[in-house]
Protein 1
Amino acid sequence: MTNDPGESGLHFEQFLDDFYVECDEHLSVARRAVLALEASLQQEVIDRGLLDELFRSFHSIKGLSAMVGLQVAEQLAHGLESYLGLLRKAQTKLTSEGLEALVAGVIAIEQVVAAKRDGAPKPDVTELTKRLEALLPSTAVNEAVPKSSAQGAPSGSTSTDVAAKVAMKLVDGGRAWSVHFAPSPAGSELGINVNSVRAELLQLGTLVHSEPRIEAGGRVAFLFLLITPGQDPPQFTMKEGLTVTPYEPASPVVESDAAPSATTDSESGAARGGGSTHLVPANLVRVDLGRLDELMRMVGELVLSRARLQDALQRLHDIIPSAERRTLEEVNLVIERQLRDLREGVMRIRMVPVHEVFARMQFVIRDLVREQGKRAALHLSGEETQIDKFIVERMMDPLLHLIRNAVSHGLESPEERIAAGKSPEARIDLRAATIGDTIVVEVEDDGRGIDAAKVLARAEAMGMAPRSTNDPAALLDILCAPGFSTREEADRSSGRGVGMDVVRRAVEELGGALIVHTKLGFGTRFVIHLPLTLAITDALIVSVHGERYAVPQVAVREVIQIESTSITTIENNELLTHHGRALPLLRLDRFFGARNRQAIAAHHVLVVGDGSDALGLVVERILGLREVVVRPLTDRLVQVPGISGATELGDGQVVLILDVADLKRNSRNRKLASTGERYAGGRHDAANQVKQTGAKP
Amino acid sequence: MSNHDGATTSLILFELAATTYAVPSRLVQQMEMVERITPVPNAPAFVDGVVFARGQVVPALNLRLRFGFERVPYNLKTRLVVLAEHGRTVGLIVDSAREFLTIPTAAIQPPPETVTGLSGKYLAGIAYVDERLLLILDVSEILNFTELATA
């Protein structure tokens, strides 16, 4: 759309956003259906429902693409739709070539749509178009060819095509109408825009075609073709900018696919719904994530206000008579509970099931496995697990990367597997589960495992100075080092050396942790721990040398009070005997660089992690448990070890949030490294001294 | 910097170690008195900590330390100048700041070759206004801290 849309520009932008969302939904449905179809390969009877579903998806994508003038996607969808039409009429059997074309088609449409959205050059689909044409009998090809040479008009649909569609829909009664809609600022104020008009049209009948038009004066208008069940003109509640005229086909019906005889009994049921571009049930509302963020932010502010209220109440504790005080405190508690409910409610809105992400992974694996001549079956579990939409979006690329690594590096060829006494078909597991306030996502393969010795050698060859790799965390540190790659040359899917560090960073930016388990010859398991939601969390407020810190409550297993005498010191490491085990301690004051100051006297220990991973954080005082609104530390100047974000407790001052996972990791590294504290030496000394002598306002 | 006749540049002036510096005012989001800054452990030496600015957590750089001057305690004249550049937002702690000045763009000269030292490399240009020397800072250079390790 190169014209200047003037006042209606906004509508079109909105419309485009909608287009991407809807395409995405239809593509998700298509992906699932294609994967399910794979099971029916070469069978006599194909699941009719799947074909219908897939047909509808491509049909909708076709219609939507035509509306935004995305001819490439429209043509692809059209080709796929035609092929599915043949399958539905049992005129051809689903072959493996056909299935591959469907898979490739879904991927290509996705790429084309993404390219449109990102303003990137359109991917080349000539090869795929040829493959599709080869699958179709000559009549369908003839019809597809002139379309690919269509030029000029924003819509790639020929009038013939439209007429054919109309004829198909008119078979069992009803009437076709041309609806012309010209968006106007006045209408827009009344909520009349292309989206609301389209929604209303869908209520009134079947929308067979829609396209944007450039009218005199460069204004954008939309033309819809509507089929209504009765013979009466449709009655619109919205009148602004709408004109309805009976539809006159421009040319006679030529398409074989559209001949009345083609509409068999079995077709009328499913295909009727197939005309609709809306697959989303009517009781679902699509909400922009930004609006939910805004809502969450407002809830966050409410939480802060309540914290202020509580502070004020506490200050008034001795002044107000106890009866009045009790009422106030009760109200305060009620507000707290209600806020909690509200917060959970908003959180639930943001949650989406992880199955769509998983379906996408399934697709990627299928493609990669085929390309690399490997064999693998994907097992999914916990697809219904709900994850915050924001987190899902951010996890897509890291998961894709882990999957690609699993296929490219993890899996052996069938021959190698047989030689190793394994089944030729490899297994990849993708799991999700909610455990408390954490989401755990796992990617596991039963491939060759990671050869720690090889990784170590490679790291040394690359000039890194790795420590021992007996510890999975240390191994992960090497794998996640920027630029590290075990591949000599990059291939398409992995080995560019930009991978694992990006994966870990993405996970950690979300407040999560990445863990690897691997056994040479048996496979590798990557475990990602993610917080359920990001915005608000419960935290223990502690103080260290007068400075307050927030510790996410989820991470704290236990709080214990200790005497200095109960601490055993072994070579720089302090241990506390707790529950009959030696618990290593990390003194936050030292970790945070106050080594020259007197050690803090009163000790509280927050126990974080469990088993061999447990660590005790030594703090001075515990000030209380609070709901905190988490804000990220986005600037790299202040992205320091052990700190994951910041919050405010109502007094306008920043309180840093401890990164427990990072503290644990650091402690582990210290255990392994023979000398020195990783974060406390070198140039940071200067920082520490400045901090101590530094000016306090 | 363009040299079109009549083109002007708006600057925010501030004082640091008895010298007048300037930053383009379009980069300045706000200026405020320095209140409580939360120290960030193990951050670079010249980062005094973080503060909230417009709901964002923003690092506060002590420009004296950044330029290798001696640290002085904050006082009533100390200001935090919050700058946004290339998607980053940082606060600069300066001795004082209060002046807004528009000068002809043509009055800005490239920094003389002879200006050396740490603060020299942070200069985008210099200008003389009423006999007064303004050192115009290259903000992106100040925010760039890759040379920190060798500094």
Protein 2
Amino acid sequence: MSLNKEKRRVVITGMGVVSPFGQGTDCLINNILAGNCSIKVDEEIRDRQDVSCFLSSKVPTLDYSDIASQKIRFMSNMSLFAYRAVEEAITNAGFVSGLPPEKTALFLGSTTSSYISWIDNVLKYTERRMDKFTTDNLFNIMNHTALVNVAHSFKLKWSGVGANTACSTGVINTGYAYLAIKEGIFDNALCGGTEEFHVIMLGLFNHMTAVSDKFNDDPNKSCRPFDANRCGIVCAEGCGMLFLETLDSALSRNVKIYGEIVGFGTNTEINNMSYSSKSSIKECMSLALENANLDASEIDFVNAHATGTIVGDAEEAQSIGEIFGDNVWTNSLKGYIGHTMAASGSIELIAILKMMENGKFAGTLNLENVDAKCSGIKHFSGVKNLKVTTFIKNSLALGGSNASLIVRKIAGNNILGGKCDERRNY
Amino acid sequence: MTKEEIIKITNETLVEKFKLDPSSLKPESTVAQDLGFSSIDMVDIVVYLEEAFNIELKSKYDNLDKIKTLGSIYNYIEKTIRMS
């Protein structure tokens, strides 16, 4: 590997999603634009006395019977979701063989490894039955379990690495894939995040009083980013994966380009473990703008991380307001699907790319009364027809791992005479 | 326990744990070629069958490489049960 002296332009040409609405990118965007909400009362939680939230947003049962039996036994849900999302992203990127180019790097992570396997291991440990350990419970507790399962399934023998930075995983992996391709380290990459729900995660957020627990009887209203009556997150699961390549490669393959990644910023909040402060989010977005060599005035849409927590939403709203003022349309998609944690960044990025493609943008669900602490930015509800050419997507994690990604539309896929317009030609 | 019961429980265990097609489970099926079991799969199969039959097979690990067919697994379990 050697670094190219000339920076390369990086575009998104493939996308794949498994969301609480089901399988596929179209399934996700159609449900969001229809104003649907995937959050439901979780019957497996309802009778528990140790949590105050009975809601979840889970992926419906999907058919995995086509996956080889020897592979599937090492795959917990996070790997299965990633398998389906990668499969769609590869096909969507135009690789009819079902396999990406041989030298495709993989950037994939999750918040934790499989709780179910950990629980089984711990039970055997406490019962002094470690002689009954099985290897599936080893491969499922590795931090990179989804990454290696995907690599083996799709013959991805090139580099496989993954940030596992909780709720910013999807965007951080996309950002580092972008940087690696831009610098000439890799030519192509599959990137994103994946997450499987377990009630333990809900219980931990419950302990921090960060889950929505005032809407157990009205799940569709439970996740309300920026709203005055918001009371926390709803735990969810899923996977979002993107295929990245150079602009030259995409043009030579004559494939659809969903957008060009032009900027990435990442930093760490060091004063709070439980939320990112306004100053650190501002710094993160500023880093992305600097990386993109763009002025804030050139951003015409903001997709916020906003999960519905009281403190986190206010800090992010104020940071957006201080950089972009009250003139840039801003939304959060958590009200539709809940918080898919490690997958949230890449799932929401894909949703915004589809919105930019279609010119139809979904506003923030359940935003009935904007909280005074979240005012000062340009909120909206319902669906708006917007001509967006450049957006920024925020992704923030517990522990303070922040990421912001800036994506620009390749003007109408302006591929004229085999060349693409320069990105400032709007 | 009859041989038929051993075959039934063994097959049910393998179908459940490895999502195998029941029709592929024949005594002459080779564990590596026909059923696709790796060495890692085989050590797990020992645990799964120990739990299914409530027996101890671990001391027989040394003999795992001698198991070539599904029929030899049935015989292995039958012999272990008879000796226990």
